[in-house]
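Run log, item B.
One chain of 592 residues. Sequence copied directly from the ordering sheet:
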Amino acid sequence: RQDLLSRCAELAMLDLDDETKDAIALITKATTDWLEAHPDVKRSEILAKRVELEGLVEPILAAAEEARKEARERLIRRCADLEENHDLDGEAGDALDKLLTETVAWVELTPNASKSQLDAKHRALDVLVNGAHSEALEAERQEALRRLKKRCEELKSLDLRGDARSQVHKLVDDSLAWVDRSPNAVKAQIEKKHRELDDAVVSLCGGEIERLQAKRALAQLCEKLSAQKLEGPLKEAMDKVVQENRAWLVANPDATKEEYTAKREKLEKDAEHIRKQARREAERAKSQLLDLLDDLEEHPLEGPDKKTIDDTVKAGRKWLDSHPDELASTYESKMDEIEEIVNPLLDQERHDLLVARQELTDCCDAYEQHGIADDEAGEKINKAVQDARTWLEQNQKAKKRQVMDRLKELEDTVLPIMTEAKRENAKQRRTLQRAVTVMHQHKEQGEDGKAIDQAVEDTQAWLKAHPDASAEELERRMKQLECEVNPHLAEVVAEEDVFEVSDDEDGTPASKRVGAPGTSRKSEHQGADMRNRMAAWEAKLRPRDSQDSGGSFVVKAGYRPKLNPIEQAPSMSDRLAALKQSSDIQKKGKWK
């Protein structure tokens, strides 16, 4: 009994169409009424009643399932057909596309949807499509009606004469009256009425109508071009062309259709040429504005100034997007407005950039006058300078930081080379000055002494006249001094030296020392470099105890001169280093 009651309740809850629900309800009600009328019925009788119930319900449910499947297939086919073939556009098309997408997704997610649900989805699609089609048809009908009324106005405005004018006006009045009498006329009917009006007018005065239409088209083109948005010389040119055509229309009121048509085509050609020039100027100004905004995006400023420029660039690009077809003067005005904001912020940066570029150029000019005789070092400097100049020419938009980096790179390349060259020049100059000083301290009588003094004076004068002499020039001057002094210096030393000294502490015999009797001093002095021989010259010329009238001096036996640290140094560079450390020597004024 309980199972049978549950089955009746289950059948009553099924989501079926109204007709199927009513049939199921009659069967279940009869079953429940039978159960209430037989409370003490046997189990076998209840089971028999259950079998009877299922036998009555099963065909009804099977038919309902077939109908549901058919409704599902019908909805799927309708969706596919609309997706491929609907001709709606605009908002109606977007709404239909959205509804189709939602419907297809719903069908896939609810495979057991009832027939009533499927039919409801189908009806929703039909309502949307039919409503959109109705709106589209109404819009087409209104457009056809507008064209008919416009045609009537054009025909009434034609400058016709005599019977033709009255007959055309009558046809127009009849057409307008038909429109008033037929507010629900469809598109096809309106278009048919339009064709009938045109055919009637052509039959009455076709040639005259066409001529007047050509004339009217030329006048309308003049009106349109006079309102063209131009400026400056282009505006003047357009006004001149329009005025010429208007004057021609006044002078030729009865011209033929062909003449009006030819005049109109020529006017269109001239106007298009002027419009192209205007577009080119506008594109040029627009491109300049874009270039300005692009340059401002790469500005090197920081802080509040950077935010101001960034906001200005953003506003400028937004303005450009909303004004794609403006005149050249409009773009130029916008450019002036932007520059008025950013120029005060960028003036200092531009000034610093110009200063940096000028500094790099000045360094190039200065380094080109390096005066280095060494071919390899000079070539390196010249190449670095040329590379810097080329970089400046190829990078006109380089920022200040980039220019300063390039300047530092040039200095890092050139300065070490020039420093080394100056150091070598200074070394050679000190060597030559030292040689001149040593020779100047030994002034002897006779021809050899005078020749030495003359060579020394000439060298001193040359040094004063050439303060910036290169190392190579100093070396040549040193060799020249050696050539002039060596022969005379050897003779002077040979005449004056009368040494009687003991052996050195290291055991070297006196007869083997420089300046001792029996040695060839001339060959020794000529075979060595001048800078290496200065120590020997000083040893012979400095330690004098006495001097006779003949200019010779005698050293007592066993005498050993006391040499200060400067005189004991083995080379000129060592002597100069010792000289700097010896304050006593400097105070006595014996050395410069």
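Observations after the first pass:
- Residues 43-85 form the longest helix (43 residues).
- Residues 492-531, 540-563, 583-588 have pLDDT under 50 and may be disordered.
Flagged for discussion on Thursday.
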